[in-house]
Amino acid sequence: MTPVSADKSQSLGKVLVTGGAGYIGATVCSALLDAGWTPIILDNLCQGRKEFTEGRIFYQGDIADRSLLKNIIQKHGPLFGAIHCAALIVVPESVTSPEEYYRENVSKSVDLFAGLRDVGCKRIVFSSSAAIYDVVDGFMVTETSPLRPSSPYARTKFMMEMVLRDFCQAYGMRGIALRYFNPIGADPKMRTGAYVKSPTHVLGRMVSVSLGKEPTFEITGTNWPTRDGSGIRDYIHVWDLAQAHVKAIENFDQAFSKNSDQASKKDSYLAMNLGTGRGVTVRELVGAFEKVNGCPINKKEAGPRPGDVAGSFASCALAESHIGWRSELSIEQGISDALKWAITWDERCRR
Fold it and tell me: Does residue 243 sit within a domain?
């Protein structure tokens, strides 16, 4: 398929971004462009938005299509690396449709990794999830905390970390798995943001209620062993999340020389948490939202959704020491950007 645009000159390098037309993937592409890299988007648009690919190199296709990947390399030359963001991500949906999640998130990712191996792309950044962690005392998790993925979605992320690790050890590749906590907000320049009509993530549901699109915000789960009974999460601005991907690409090779012992230095796979290091309950997030919004929202208590857990927040020391990244933007900034984006997106959709 012919790309939407041609390469920019004087690029630091080309980076394949799967799922680059989605909320997080498109924001990652913006951050890469701002930093001087050339993202090449591969997205089948089953979830992503074509509007987010405008002016960017874009191929519409499946991540499992190895011939398409070879065509991309023939057209654009070697890749510095790849960022794999493409995935289905709705936890309750994964409980009711596990076949689709294992096919899209696991089977096709195996084909993608094999295709990247075949075209000589040996640097892979993988979008993983904090959902793979077990609940721990105090709720703060490090990369060595116990893992216990509690939904089909989370298990697909856990499986793909193991697949990537095995590929790296067997085929001379290197991988960095970035374990996302809870992204909020939008690109501060309003180029990209959340766009689903019926959001399932907590801030998106609050925005919908504040704009009159939904009648009531449900606090799902109020008997968790947290300070106020509601779930606890680590809400990270999506722009901070995107910047972490840029840092992972820029400092990819150096990251593997940061480990202190010789055995670790020989490892070809790293996992890093991406969060703020601060746990915020759902009730606290509601309070912050109402303060930023300037008025209360209709809310009620409800039971937990399928696959929900009490939650966790991140220790991010490893990302800071290995790739030089830490979060900078506040929860209030994330809320403000999410509200601004929702209005901007509505206006764009009405044109």
Answer: yes
Beta-carbon contacts of residue 40 (< 8 Å; ≥ 6 apart): 3, 14, 15, 16, 17, 20, 57, 59, 72, 76, 79
- The CATH number of the domain holding residue 171 is 3.40.50.720
pLDDT, one tens digit for every residue, the chain (351 residues): 445 444 444 789 999 999 999 999 999 999 999 999 999 999 999 999 999 999 999 999 999 999 999 999 999 999 999 999 999 999 889 999 999 999 999 999 999 999 999 999 999 999 999 999 998 999 999 999 999 999 999 999 999 999 999 999 999 999 999 999 999 999 999 999 998 777 878 999 999 999 999 999 999 999 999 999 999 999 999 999 999 999 999 999 999 987 654 344 468 999 999 999 999 999 999 999 999 999 999 999 999 988 788 999 999 999 999 999 999 999 999 999 999 999 888 777 766
Number of domains in the chain: 1
Domain assignment of residue 65, given as a range: 14-185+235-275
d(CA 166, CA 274): 23
325, part of any domain: no
Domain annotation covers residue 191: no
140 domain residue, yes or no: yes
Global model pTM greater than 0.90: yes
Active site residues: 153
Which residues does residue 269 pair with via DSSP β-bridges, in sequence order? 175
